[in-house]
Amino acid sequence: MQPTWLVTGGAGFIGGNFVLEALARDNRTIVNLDALTYAGNPDTLASVAADPRHRFVRGDIGDRELVARLLAEHRPQAVVNFAAESHVDRSIEGPAAFVQTNVVGTLNLLECALAYWRSLEGAEREAFRLLHVSTDEVYGSLGAEGRFTETTPYAPNSPYSASKAASDHLVRAFHHTYGLPVLTTNCSNNYGPFQFPEKLNPLMIQKALAGEALPVYGDGRNVRDWLYVIDHCEAIRAVLERGRVGEVYNIGGDAERENIEVVHRICDLLDARRPLADGRPRRSLITYVKDRPGHDRRYAIDASKIQGELGWKPAQSFESGIERTIDWYLGHEEWCGRIRDGRYRGERLGLVA
């Protein structure tokens, strides 16, 4: 019998890419549980819609009966938890939804997984893993020097990162209290195919293609460590298959860039590939807007642990990754158009009255 993974949040950006990569790489069954909230997009999974190895279930990780039934029916060897509300600006406008999904939902998933794991015996019990996907934002903001390590104290500064920090602590507690075999990953900023266009890269790409103003928060000098999403998926797989139970692994792209650098690069690549009809350089569209409340200044990941223990390192530089990303969006404008015609039109989020 081919192995099975239960993937939660597998219609989202990172989860969807993980599902596609897993099905392309080997013969396994993916049970994909996603609530299809605003950022969940079944179009991401169109290429595997008819694949019998992909079993999509619309539902919430907070639904105890559903999660327990899926575990009992499909008997997965692993649970990979991507399910989360994940956008800082939205968390500023409505933190309750983030607590409900990221904290209460994760707690329910852990309780169901614990009961399932306890029902297993022998090799099945020994092999089972629950991998929780988290963020570097739980560590707070860095100064000009240093990087986040796995032992950096938590200091979340937004409702989103606070909710993810709480979920991380619950995962740790279920291992140390009950023995549940868990793994946690904390990643830097992802970019790449299928990203919902409220995030920096796809938002700037879509607005730049349309010749619209490009809103850059504050002075544009906030720094992020950029990680190509397929590299992230490879890292998660390495942790799932070879990581030490109970451990945390930071995953970064070793690609620190100021936000304004990222926007400049997007503008230049699009100018080269698809110039505006009036010949204007897209950098002229950049508009500096009021900064996000509590905007962390700098993130940077020290990924030496995963590189040393598991042999993973990113395959893409920022330069090669952003080119791949631009080319994907240029080749999939209908995917973005369906989102912009419906749930999200590129409006500013996260302003405090």
Q: Would you spell out the secondary-structure blueprint of this structure?
A:
Blueprint: E1 4-8, H1 13-25, E2 29-34, E3 54-58, H2 64-74, E4 78-81, H3 88-93, H4 95-119, H5 122-127, E5 129-135, H6 159-178, E6 182-187, E7 189-191, H7 200-209, E8 214-217, E9 223-228, H8 229-242, E10 248-251, E11 256-258, H9 259-273, E12 286-289, H10 304-310, H11 318-331, H12 333-340
Parallel strand pairs: 1-2, 1-4, 2-3, 4-5, 5-6, 6-10, 7-9, 8-12
Antiparallel strand pairs: 9-11
Characterise the protein shown here.
The protein has 353 residues and is an alpha/beta fold. It has a domain at 4-191 and 228-252 and 294-315: Rossmann fold (3-Layer(aba) Sandwich), CATH 3.40.50.720. 42% of the residues lie in helices and 16% in strands. It has 12 helices and 12 strands. It has helices at 13-25, 64-74, 88-93, 95-119, 122-127, 159-178, 200-209, 229-242, 259-273, 304-310, 318-331, 333-340, and strands at 4-8, 29-34, 54-58, 78-81, 129-135, 182-187, 189-191, 214-217, 223-228, 248-251, 256-258, 286-289. The strands form 3 sheets. Strands 3-2-1-4-5-6-10 form a 7-stranded parallel beta sheet, with helices on both faces. A 3-stranded mixed beta sheet has the order 7-9-11. Helix 1 (13-25) links the parallel strand 1 and strand 2 (29-34). The longest helix is centred in the N-terminal third of the chain and has 25 residues, at 95-119. The radius of gyration is 20 Å and the shape is globular. It starts with a strand and ends in a 13-residue tail after the last helix. Mean pLDDT is 93; it is low at 344-353.
